[in-house]
Amino acid sequence: MEKKTVVLCDDHNIVRAGLRQIVESFGDFEVLDDVATGEALFPLFQKQVPDILLLDISLPGRSGLEVLKQVQSMYPKIAVLTLSMYPEDQFAIRMIKAGARGYLHKDSAPQILEDAMRTIMEGKQYISAELTRIMIEELAKDDNELPHKSLSDREYEVLLYIGEGKSMTEIAAQLSLSIKTVSTYRSRILEKMRLKSNSDLVKYILRHDLAPGGSDPMQATS
Hints:
Helix 4 (88-97) crosses helix 6 (129-139) and helix 8 packs across helix 9. 50% of the residues lie in helices and 13% in strands. Strand 1 (4-9), helix 1 (13-25) and strand 2 (29-35) form a beta-alpha-beta unit. The protein is globular, with a radius of gyration of 18 Å. It contains eleven helices and five strands. The N and C termini lie far apart (54 Å). By secondary structure, the protein is of the alpha/beta class. It has helices spanning 13-25, 41-47, 64-74, 88-97, 110-121, 129-139, 153-163, 168-175, 179-193, 198-207, 217-220, and strands at 4-9, 29-35, 52-56, 79-84, 102-105.
């Protein structure tokens, strides 16, 4: 049986090495290459288009969401499985709407990763029990019920970085943006959410459990 081809995109060397070893242990998947940024994917795809892309959300420069949208536009046949440190309720629905076939937390067991990869190769979406619950709850809600739901993907990403306790300088470096641009995003976030300061944002993030892993952004800055 011909092996399905896979490309890995994650900015951590150890994570990529571990993923490569795990994926190739499944037997019928072949890792063509692994890269640290979204920009590095497209020269690879010009040479060979893989069956599957394992894509991290938090990347330097262009975010995983932006990369996903471009991949879907240029190479719609690639089955994209997104990986993240963020729980399903924070990014999964945005990624699925952008075209991802599935969403996995990085704490997931290798068996779950294998199940997800085999599911998306059958042309299906991999939806975990937790994501199913979240999607059902979303259907029952008004889309504008919570202010953060109105944010763009980039604004939401900046909000979560603020929730991690990162400064404007650190966020700018992570996203390869100018500090002025990040400050503009912050201003838009405050305006859309009708809040006045970073302190208000932190309180909102804590109240709605948006900090990754339930961490306290105030402690992260200490």
